[in-house]
């Protein structure tokens, strides 16, 4: 094969049908691959040539991905396994693994890297189990640039100098370069915005609830305004790709990085999306957008000043919505805030490092709703201290709060999280497939608790979903706020019954 003029192909793998079942159709959002877009922007800024293949948005089969890669013939091909939020990385290994197998089967000489949250959590294991040449133990930006240079140089010994790289030695043994890549610190200068020009913008659509009252879900975009999170929730794996880079910067193991784009850079990107692509529905994908008052107010003030008409949703914590924020957020077009309420029982929450009180939940939800902001509550069943009574308390809290939407999750031990390390230490069963880490897959396997089996947790979660969305008080509230078509949409959503292998078994291992 002739030498390539293209430095790198970045692939967003396609896992949707496998991990969402029938919910992966028209109900699910189609998210732009934020990390692939940022990586392309970073690399192009350094002078490298890039191409993005968004296999999920284009609904490409593994064989179609392999065909495109073979035609493009890049120096390096990278499968980006980040997902639309941190917990989606591991489940997206389903599509990543299939893509890697197809690419290597089509052209064994393709130099193939896997990078992302799951990969950073388990870099050696990923190298050993997947058909790839390299894995990345960090966020990937510095590593990819150095790896392209090493491959162009053609000297295998140069791989030892590529930071955060796992690779195969000539003897067939997995090796690590033993050098950490520092985190990219100046986000404004090195990644001013995503590489939107390479993405199929006409294919992205918002979550169904994001557009309640006006079910026009396109155009849609998702951006980061920050990277990382200063909190340490036991079930979250967001910091997995950043730990190596934090170490390189001299940060303590117990600390977590939290990096910002300036409000002006964020606003320039938003205005570009509005003017160039007609975007109105926008997601701030930050794990914790509503946190730093100066950052939040700076972005909101800019949106208001630039007269950008937006429908935004963002994540917040119950204890981070400060005085004056709600009114400003609403004026800027933040119509939805998503809160990780997780559990009703203080004991269960505190055990996973969520240290706010139940009365704070009621106060914060009431405060933001009084400003006209809709609330989505996230709830987790099956946290380590959960029993049937505490899970019922959580469902009762959700029904009492009666927020405009709710997500009900089973606790999962995602690689890179404290729960994963605890589960391994305790010898608790973990999924045997990557799709088993999906909340909605046929072979999903939640974490057991100290009091309940995985099957008991899953059964409760699935029933809670239907109880909430068929509750008469909830449906009445939705009709009053959003109209009859939205109620009908919700009723159609609840008709989707997820198939669960775990619940078919009469005997479930503890």
Structure explained in plain terms:
The protein is an alpha/beta fold and 510 residues long. 39% of the residues lie in helices and 14% in strands. The protein contains 21 helices and 15 strands. The chain has a 7-stranded mixed β-sheet, sandwiched between helices. Strands 8-11-12-13-14-15 form a 6-stranded parallel β-sheet. Strand 11 (281-284), helix 12 (293-305) and strand 12 form a beta-alpha-beta unit. Helix 19 packs across helix 20. The model is unreliable at 506-510 (pLDDT under 50).
Q: In brief, what are we looking at here?
A:
With 510 residues, the protein is an alpha/beta fold. The chain has helices spanning 16-20, 34-45, 62-72, 88-91, 93-106, 117-121, 123-129, 141-153, 187-190, 243-248, 263-277, 293-305, 325-331, 346-350, 358-370, 388-401, 418-426, 454-469, 472-482, 484-494, 501-504, and strands at residues 8-12, 50-54, 76-80, 112-115, 134-136, 165-168, 174-176, 220-223, 226-228, 258-260, 281-284, 311-316, 334-342, 374-381, 405-410. It has two domains: 8-176, Cobalamin-binding domain (Rossmann fold), CATH 3.40.50; 205-225 and 261-411 and 446-504, pyruvate-formate lyase- activating enzyme, CATH 3.80.30.
The largest pleated sheet is described as: 7 strands, mixed
Number of helices: 21
Output the CATH topology of the largest domain. pyruvate-formate lyase- activating enzyme
Level of helix content?
25-40%
Mean pLDDT: 93
Our Rg estimate from Cα atoms comes to: 22 Å
CATH class of the largest domain: Alpha Beta
Q: Distance N terminus to C terminus? A: 52 Å
Gross morphology: globular
Largest sheet strand order: 2-1-3-4-5-6-7
The helix/strand class is alpha/beta
């Amino acid at each position: 094969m002739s030498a390539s003029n293209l430095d790198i192909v970045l692939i967003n793998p396609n896992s949707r049908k496998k991990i969402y079942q029938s919910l992966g159709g028209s109900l699910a959002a189609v998210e732009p691959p934020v990390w692939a877009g940022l990586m392309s922007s970073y690399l192009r800024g350094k002078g490298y040539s890039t191409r993005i293949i968004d296999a999920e948005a284009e609904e490409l089969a593994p064989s179609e991905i392999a065909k495109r890669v073979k035609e493009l013939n890049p120096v390096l091909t990278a499968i980006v396994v980040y997902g639309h939020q941190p917990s989606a990385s591991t489940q997206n290994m389903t599509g990543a693994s299939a893509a890697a197998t197809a690419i290597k089967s089509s052209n064994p000489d393709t130099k193939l890297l896997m990078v992302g949250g799951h990969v950073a959590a388990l870099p050696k294991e990923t190298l050993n189990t997947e058909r790839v040449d390299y894995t990345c133990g960090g966020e990937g930006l510095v590593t990819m640039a150095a790896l392209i240079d090493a491959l162009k140089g053609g000297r295998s010994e140069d791989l030892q100098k590529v930071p955060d790289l796992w690779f195969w030695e000539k003897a067939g043994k997995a090796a690590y370069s033993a050098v950490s890549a520092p985190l990219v610190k100046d986000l404004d200068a090195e990644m001013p915005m995503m590489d939107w020009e390479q993405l199929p913008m006409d294919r992205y659509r918002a979550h169904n609830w994001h557009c309640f009252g006006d079910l026009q879900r396109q155009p849609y975009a998702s951006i980061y305004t920050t990277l990382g999170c200063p909190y340490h929730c036991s079930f979250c794996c967001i910091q997995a790709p950043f730990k190596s880079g934090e170490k390189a910067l001299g940060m303590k193991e117990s600390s977590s990085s939290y990096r910002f784009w300036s409000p002006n850079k964020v606003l320039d990107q938003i205005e570009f999306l509005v003017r160039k692509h007609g975007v109105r529905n926008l997601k701030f994908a930050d794990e914790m957008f509503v946190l730093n008052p100066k950052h939040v107010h700076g972005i909101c003030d800019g949106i208001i000043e630039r007269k950008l008409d937006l429908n935004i949703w963002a994540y917040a914590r119950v204890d981070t919505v400060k005085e004056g924020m709600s009114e400003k957020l609403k004026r800027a077009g933040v119509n939805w805030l998503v809160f990780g309420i997780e559990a009703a029982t203080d004991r269960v929450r505190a055990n996973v490092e969520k240290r706010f009180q139940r009365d704070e939940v009621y106060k914060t939800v009431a405060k933001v709703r009084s400003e006209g902001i809709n609330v989505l509550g996230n709830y987790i069943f099956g946290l380590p201290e959960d029993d049937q009574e505490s899970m019922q308390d959580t469902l009762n809290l959700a029904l009492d709060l009666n927020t405009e939407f709710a997500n009900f999750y089973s606790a999962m031990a995602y690689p890179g999280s404290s729960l994963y390390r605890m589960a391994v230490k305790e010898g608790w069963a973990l999924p045997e497939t990557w799709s088993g880490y999906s909340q909605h897959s046929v072979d999903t396997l939640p974490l057991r608790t100290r009091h309940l089996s995985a099957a008991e947790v899953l059964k409760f979660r699935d029933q809670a979903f239907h109880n909430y969305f068929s509750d008469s008080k909830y449906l009445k509230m939705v009709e009053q706020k959003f109209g009859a078509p939205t109620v009908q949409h919700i009723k159609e959503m609840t008709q989707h019954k997820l198939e669960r292998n775990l619940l078919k078994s009469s005997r479930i291992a503890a």
